[in-house]
């Protein structure tokens, strides 16, 4: 299991719990001044914290954490995040967020340390990253974030050689119909990314 500290776990359940059937518990988590997550009832707080020891919930929250944190190597979390993402995929192969997370993990490792070191030290492979991005898009084609992360991954993995494909993915993301406020932000982000890519030189 990926071991979350109390504060991080409460944040993850607050922000993502509803997606995994934990909406009632997520609603019990308030945000204090300064951003600290708090739960008024001690028994409820402990119940939420104890969910860390559920392998499936811990794995999917690790996938969400990986998607939202872009500096996992610098934090020394690479190995543990990889294990948690692979656990999430093993438990739920059709978990789109876990596939996005694992694709992004590999792309970011290769972008930071190169394909050779990334492969030998962290087990990150370009083909594997692309495979997981493609699977996520296939599982969740209506989600702008799946297309955005795939596009970002292609740029990290291949640079200018894949700009045209990345731009096409940003365009697909921008055309997605948002289901909520968060997805509207994703669509607007896709439009911004597409604009930036469109003005970059391709050679």
What does this structure look like?
The protein has 203 residues and is an all-alpha fold. The protein contains eleven helices and two strands. The chain has helices spanning 6-16, 23-26, 42-50, 55-68, 78-91, 96-113, 115-122, 126-139, 144-158, 163-174, 181-198; strands at 29-31, 37-39. A two-stranded antiparallel sheet has the order 1-2. Strand 1 and strand 2 form a beta hairpin. Helix 4 crosses helix 5. The longest helix is centred in the middle third of the chain and has 18 residues, at 96-113. The model has no long low-confidence stretch (mean pLDDT 85).
- Broad structural category: mainly alpha
| Average residue pLDDT | 85
What is the rounded Rg?
18 Å
Helix content: 55-70%
Segments where pLDDT lies below 50 for 5+ residues?
A: none
What general form does the structure show? globular
Largest sheet: 2 strands, antiparallel
Order of helices and strands: HHEEHHHHHHHHH
> Whole-Å distance between the termini?
44 Å
Beta-strand content estimate: under 5%
Number of continuous helical runs: 11
**What is the strand tally?**
2
The strand line-up of the biggest sheet is: 1-2
Give the helices and strands, then pairings.
Elements: H1 6-16, H2 23-26, E1 29-31, E2 37-39, H3 42-50, H4 55-68, H5 78-91, H6 96-113, H7 115-122, H8 126-139, H9 144-158, H10 163-174, H11 181-198
Antiparallel strand pairs: 1-2
Short recap of the structure:
With 203 residues, the protein is mainly α.
Question: Which structural traits does this protein have?
Answer:
203 residues
